[in-house]
C-alpha cells in the first residue's frame, strides 16, 4: 500500500483525538522564543521544521477534504477508467501523463508530477484497453530511468529527484510481458485504424508507439535486447538502439496535442503531494506543457543519438573519448542522457565495455608520439595505472551538469597535480645518464599529461562565462589568462613536434630538414589563443579610446574595499585554483598588472595589435575549415544533431564570426573616431559563448 | 510625508554613505522585534521561512541582525551568521529586505556595510550569500560592494530558479 493509500484510508477509518489542550499545557512553561531541541540542531533542521497548523507549511491541514480515487469515481467526479472512457479523453490523459513525465525528468518530484494522476494510485482500477498498456509502459520507463540515473550517479538534487514515495512503478512486471502487451496493443490499434474513426486510433497508436520506442531505446542501450546482454560491445548493438531511437523521434514528431470534453483537474490533482509522507513541499508546481514536453524529449533524443555513435569513434585514445564527452556536455544534455553516456563510456570499468582504460591511455600516449619503448616500460605502465584513476574521475566530472562540473574540476585538479609530478619524475629517470644534469631531458610523459590536463583548466575558466559568473570588469583578466593557457597548450604541442622532428633528423642524417608545418590541432589552438589576445587588446584599446565607457577595463575598479591587496585577492579568487599546479606555471596578479601597464604602447599600437590577432585567428580558422571538410571523428559519414567535435562547421563558423565581426566593427569604430563621430559600443556574446564581439 | 521628504533629500546627496537623520540602525535585542522582522521579510518571499529559521539566526548571532528603524517602524533588516567553513571564519548573510517605499536610497547598502564591519571586527575572512540570478536589485547592490559571483547553483530555490553564490573576501 502506498503512502497515499494509507493516508486516504487512515483519515476515514482512524479514531482522532484532539491534543490541542495538551500541547498548550505543555507549552505553559516556555517563554516565547524558547525551543526544545537536541544537540546538533542546525540550520537545515531549522529550515525544514514546519509550523503545525500553518496551511502554507503543514501539508496535513484540511486533508480531511481530500477524496480518494474510489470516492471520486463513486461520486462521478472523475470517469471510470474503463472502456467507457471516450477516446478523446484517453488521448488527453496520455498527453497529460507525458507532460508529467517530462516534468519529472526535469527535476521535480514524482508526487508532484506523474502521481498527480489520481488513477495511478489505484492502478488496478484502470481497465481501459488503450490506457492501461500505455500507463504500464510509461511507468516501466520511469522505473528504468530511475535505475539508470541512480546507477550512473552523476546527478545532483537539482537534476533529479529519485524518491519514489512507494509509488507503483511496475517494478514487479516482467520486461517481456510489458513488451508483448505494447506490441499487441499497437497491432490492435493498427487494425482499428482501418475502420471508422481511424484518425483517433492513429493518435492513440502514435502515443503508445512513442512510449514503446522510448522504452525500447532505453532497453537497447542497457543491453537488454541483445543476445550478448550487458554491456553493449559491438557496433551493431549500438546500431540497434540507434534504429529504435530514430523511430522514437518519428513518433514524437507525429504527436499533436488533442483535448477531450472531460475536465482534467480532478483526474490530475496537485494536492496529491500533500498526502505523501516524504520530501514533497506543500506547494503546487507548474507542469511542463505539451510543447515543452516535445522540446525536452526532442533534445533528449538528440543527446541519446550521440550515445549510439560511440563505437563509431575513429580514435580509440582516452583523449578522444574525453574530447567527445567535452563536446557532448557542451550541448547541456538532460540528466538521463548524461547518465546513459557515462554508463556506456565506462561500462563495467572498461571503455565501451571493451578496452581497458589503461589501453586507451597507451593508445593516447602513442598517438602523442611518446616513444613506444617508453610506453612499454614497466614503470610507465605503473604510471598508467595512476593515470587511469584520474581518467575515470575526469569522465565522471564531464558527466555532471555544467554548474556542478565547474565545481568538480577544482577537485579533479588535485588529482592532476599528482600525475603531472609522476610524469615529470619518470621523464627525468628515463633521461640518458650522459646528458647534462641541468637538462630535464625529453619531457614526453609530462607533455602528454599536460595536453590532457590543460583543457580542464580552460574548461574551468570558460564555464564561468556560460554560468554568467564574470562581471564585465573582470573580462580583461579572464581573456588574459585564457590567452596564457591556450598559448601553453600550443607550445606544449609544438615542443612535442620538435621532439619528433629531432628524432627523425637523427634517423635520416644528411637529408634536408623538412620545414615545420603546424598540425591542424595546433592551428586550432592558435586560433583560440589569437582570439583571446585580440579581445584582451581590444578591451584595453577601447578603454584607452573611451575612458570609462564600453567595457570597464580595470577588473577591479568598482570595489568599495580598496584594501591594499583587494584587487589581488579577487584575481586570486578566480585563478587561485591553478596555483596547485607547477605546470603551467601559475600567473600572479603582478604579472597581469605588468602586462597591462602599456606605458610604452600607444592606442594606435594597441589597435594594430588587436587587429593583427583577429587576422591571425581568421587565417588559422580558414586553414582548419579547409581541413575539416575532409575529416570526421567518426568512421562513417554521420549526421549528428549535436555539435560533437571541434571540427564541426557550426562551431568553426562561430569562431570565424568572432574574428570577422570584431575586425570589421573595430575598424569602423576607429574610422569614426578619427572623424570625431564615434560613440562607444557595447559587447555581447551573440557569436560565441566565450568570446565577446563588438555590437553594431 | 515628512519621512518621504527626508528620503528624497537623502537621494540628492547621492553618496554611498547616506546618513538619514531620522533612520536609526539598531541591533537585534529580543523577541519583541521578531514580528517586525518577519513582517518585512515575508512581503518579498514566495516561500515563507518558519519561525524556527528566524530564531536560529537571531538567537545565536543577535549582533549580526540589524534593523533600520524610523521611530517604531522597521523599514529595513539584515540577518546573518558567522561560523567556520573549511577552517575559515565565514560570514553568511541570510536575509536582507528594505521596505518598498524606502528602496533605492542606499538603506540596503548601509545595512550590508554595517554588517560587514561587524563581521570584520569578529575576524571573518570572507562573506558569502546566495541570491536568485533574476534578483537584479540584490545583485547590483552586492556587486557594487565588490562581491564576486563565486558559483552558480542550479535550481537552488523551490521555484526552480538558479542562484548565484556571491562572495567577498575581506
Ligand atoms: C535588494 C534590496 C534589499 C535593495 O535595497 P535598497 O535599499 O533599495 O538598495 P540600495 O539603495 O542600497 O541599492 C544599491 C544598489 O543596488 C542596485 N539596485 C537596487 N535596487 C535596484 C533595482 N530595483 N534595479 C536594479 N538595481 C538595483 C543598484 O545598483 C543600487 O545602486 P545605485 O543606486 O547606485 O544604482 C531591496 O530591493 C529589497 O528589499 N528587495 C527584496 C528582498 C530581496 O530581494 N532581498 C535580497 C535577497 S538576497
Question: Strand fraction band of chain A?
Answer: under 5%
Order of helices and strands of chain B, N to C? HEHHEEEHEHEE
What is the radius of gyration of chain A? 31 Å
Detail the poorly predicted runs of chain B.
1-19
Termini separation of chain A comes to: 64 Å
Strand content of chain B: 25-35%
> What would the average pLDDT of chain B be, to the nearest integer?
86
Q: How many domain regions of chain A? A: 3
Structural class by helix and strand composition of chain A? mainly alpha
State the CATH superfamily name of chain B: Gcn5-related N-acetyltransferase (GNAT)
Short description:
Chain B: It comes from Planoprotostelium fungivorum. By secondary structure, chain A is mainly alpha-helical.
Structure, explained:
The complex is a heterodimer of chains A (696) and B (170). By secondary structure, chain A is mainly α. Chain A has three domains: 80-304; 316-465, no CATH class; 470-502 and 516-696, no CATH class. Chain A contains 23 helices and five strands. Chain A has helices at 3-13, 20-27, 43-48, 69-74, 87-105, 131-152, 175-193, 198-221, 235-254, 290-308, 318-330, 335-345, 357-367, 372-376, 378-399, 402-430, 444-466, 475-507, 520-545, 566-575, 589-596, 603-628, 649-674; strands at residues 346-347, 350-351, 355-356, 683-684, 693-694. In chain A, a hairpin with an 8-residue loop joins strand 4 and strand 5. In chain A, helix 6 (131-152) packs parallel to helix 8 (198-221), helix 16 runs antiparallel to helix 17 (444-466) and helix 18 packs antiparallel against helix 19 (520-545). Helices cover 32% and strands 32% of the residues of chain B. The longest helix of chain B has 15 residues, at 107-121. Chain B starts with a helix and ends with a strand. The model of chain B is unreliable at 1-19 (pLDDT under 50). The structure holds coenzyme A. Coenzyme A (COA) binds at residues 44, 96-98, 103-109, 129, 131, 135-138, 140-141, 144 of chain B.
